[in-house]
Task: structure prediction
Amino acid sequence: MNKVIRRIQRYQGWFGAGAAGCLLVGLYLGLIASPPDYYQGEVVRIMYIHVPLAHTSLLAYTVLFGGSVWYLWKRDPLVDNMCHAAAGLSAVFTSLALFTGMIWGKPTWNTWWTWDARLTSFTVLLLILIGYLMLRTFIDDPEREARFAAVVAIIGFVDLPIVHFSVEWWRTLHQPQSFSLRGVSISSDLLFPLIMMSIGMSLLFTYMLLVRTQMLYLTNLLHAKKGRLLGQFHLSKADS
Amino acid sequence: MTAFYLRWGILVVGATILVVLTYRNYEENLATMTPEQVLANSPTEEIRVKGLVRGGTLRGELEEGRASFDLAGEKDTLPVQYEGPPPENLRELKTLILIGKWKTPTRTFQAREMALVTNYGFVMGAYIVGLIPLALFLFFMGRKVCLLYDEIKQSTLYQSESDTHVDSR
Amino acid sequence: MWTRGKKTGFLVSMLMVGGALSYLALGNFGENLVYFFTPSEVKAFTPEYYQKKIRVGGMVVKGSVKSHPDPVGLSFELTDGAATIPINFEGIPPDLFKEGQGAVVEGYWAANHQFHSNLIMAKHSEDYMPMELKRAGVELPKKDFMKSLVE
Result:
């Protein structure tokens, strides 16, 4: 068994517990202890789930990008497993951010969906991730699969700054960034639950990344152990 | 495997407590009356009435916190006198919740405070859509990892690769 | 490297994703860099733009909102600081529609220089605070929506 995997096994619990703790406290603050917004009323509470999901999906893609560069450089299959895991998670977080955003849009903007620059570029991010995951299912040679996927992930990274700055560069229905060079536009009562949920969601992502990386690694390992495709299987020499 | 289910059990209990706390916190905000119900029952205690501010009926000095208007329900309308803090969100053709008392002698509703429509359905929807799939995804992923560790431990057939002794939890 | 079925599946799915991406990139996205027009741009419209379904965004002028009962609706003015256009709206406006706030209105610009619409989308700003702070007159830093329109 890989040394890194053993270390993950030992420490992952802390991330899980931290995520659960932060999220429960964040939910209590967001749903019960914090006041409604002066303009939106109670619906502002959707922000505490939508914004952390959205920023975590961008965090996940950044991890995917970093991992892909690292993979192309070092060719470590475990790093490839991590990239694959990060891409799956990023796709999940992106979809959930889109859905919660739609639910926030209806009572505030008066529309479930509109093709403004922020919503469009975020949909493009989801499509890139779906393309990435499809690419991985359809290539049989694992080495080649990892290489192609890493290249796709690196090219797709172009969309991230577009997502982030779309609300500043172009006319959109989506409101601009609340954290920017102008300062923080959220008063402390509403800021604290948001920060708590954001930390919790980042920890949850880290925990999920560790679990999913293990899952992919172990699946590969098991296949190798069963003797299938043993010759060409994609495991590093350090493992055997 | 037992430890795995135990951890998720604790999490579910924690989440349930949170749901109950949240519900009890907003329980009293959920009860609103319609203008028709107010006219039919003439309640004497303080109530919350939900309705639409009729177009063309809003008068008064909003900056000083005084206004009068008609609040429309499905069929009937309620004449309203508002006196309270300067209303941030009062305008015509807007649905609002008014807090105050019904004065039977003058047949007007005396409001002291107003609130935006709560839209709790949207808030609840967003949290369900955001958190439940995430939790299910993690649950099945975690379970799969546990099962994989078990399976690897049992597959002693190809023990030749050095160390497969991992603790399955 | 490929089995036959996988190759077909791969090509089909890549075509789908690639098609969707290029559709967004070439058609929709390019168009949506101008998601809405400003009142100044609408005022400068030449007749071939009249009666075309477009979106206009701007600030709802304070004191301009008048409601009319039959058919239920509103008339108000939308400004970007440089120009102001009159809007005729039929329907119930959204909850967050308010004087002095941003709104994006969908409809068409008529030859009589009136904008007709039956969809208002409220554009809220990125500042959030409880009612007590707002009543105490607190202002949080935020992007000046009007300024961003004129640029």
Chain C touches chain A through 54 residues (CB under 8 Å). Chain C has two domains: 1-33, 39-150.
